[in-house]
From TrEMBL:
It is a lipid-anchor; GPI-anchor. It is found in: Cell membrane. This is glucan endo-1,3-beta-D-glucosidase. It is an enzyme of class 3 (hydrolase). Residues 1-34 form the signal peptide. It comes from Eragrostis curvula (weeping love grass). It catalyses: Hydrolysis of (1->3)-beta-D-glucosidic linkages in (1->3)-beta-D-glucans. One of its GO terms (molecular function) is glucan endo-1,3-beta-D-glucosidase activity. GO terms for cellular component: plasma membrane; side of membrane. Keywords: Cell membrane, Disulfide bond, Glycoprotein, Glycosidase, GPI-anchor, Hydrolase, Lipoprotein, Membrane, Plant defense, Signal, Transmembrane, Transmembrane helix.
Amino acid sequence: MLPSRRGPRPPPFSPAFLLLLLLAVAPMPPPAAAVGVTWGFASSHPLPAAQVVRGILLPNSVPRVRLAAASSDALSALAGTGVAVTVGVPDALLRPLAASRKAAAAWVHDNITRYASSVRFEYIAVGDEPFLPSHGQHFQPFVVPATENIQRALIDAKLSSKMKVVVPCSTEVYQNASTLPSKAGFRPDVNETMVELLSFLANNSSPFMVELNPFLSFQQNKKLSLDYYLFQLMTHPVKDGQNKYDNFFDASIDALVTALTRVGFGNMGIVVGRAGWPTDGAVNATPAVAQSFMTGLVNHLAKKSGTPLRPKVPPIETYLFSLLDEDQHSTARGDCERHYGIFTFDGQAKYYVNIGQGPKALKNAPDVEYLPSKWCVVDNKKELSNVSSSFAAACSNGDCTALSPGGSCSGLGWPGNVSYAFNSYYQQHDQSEDSCNFNGLGLITTVDPSVDDCLFPLAIRTSAAASIHPTLAIIVLKVVVLWFCITTCSLT
């Protein structure tokens, strides 16, 4: 195994020391039986799926996993493991799936039926927060029809009794300006569609899947303390009538319960499809704070105390976001979105959290193959007056999110930040010599330029042609295939 400095960032404490500290403070409760992790594929150099399953999921006894999209490699690796699997349907597929039952049947056949005998499917998650306000009406008209067509395809394949169809929805579909759960209700622009969706879910005994983003909420609600988000004891909990809330999680669930009740679905089951905390890319995004949130969440769920509106009825399942860092993930909600992994992109644990392994330290992915110990930095001997354009180009095509205010490399200064950008681009392009040119300003070195906690990563051995934007490539291919089916087959 390579030295930890070769990864993006080492754990803040040694696992042995951290374990002793945790055990000394309080006995470790068992993990909530219904905790899982999300697994995304937006990485320029992803670990092979088999290595993720055999090297991370199984050794750490992860009971369930939610795939961001259907991946033949991931599904094949999960076959025969007994791990419960949720498969995502990207937003880009909603329109073609809504337009044709044949397209939905083809998707189910290719991504579900082929693996149903060996993969333990639990949910199909249609869309990826398709009701975000930033999307406008782009996806909304297609969500319910696509969901219905997927359900019909499962029925025809005689698989509907083995899994449920859900639609992941962000808290923005029901939260308003107030932080009080009793004031929540679905947004007027989505209310009619939500009622249609809820009717579908109720008719098929499916739960409502909500995506929580506590870090984004913390950034937006300056009146709420960090303790409120980290499950710390609060002297002054949030009061809402007779109910008191000392953490963001319970308040978010009860806000959803209120919104569901307002439209007649107050007893619907709830699955939390996302709940996590980033470790880089913003102020308060550190491994230590992330560990505090994640451990607090898992321990809170283990108590099965429920919420003030649903006492002793916790969510059916909760998925921790996320398994691995993704350097190609969208940063529309902030640079920290690429740093939500419990593990670094190369499968090294950043901190302790009980995802199934109990009080033991998390096991890292073994036998990771890195590229040679080479980095690309700015050549200080050259005239650097025009280096800004090269810096911008490197960042726009690489990953400079660690340079953001509060990030692990935000203190580098100039020209260290330029070197970081150059190296990111260089590693993402498999250390090809021409990717460290930058108009003659780049220099390849074998001396690690990392400084303190700011680590200049090394890429792992993966073909760039096959790895850059893999999810996007899959989506584009499937959209083409589905639209071909729509335009050449008679609709039924």
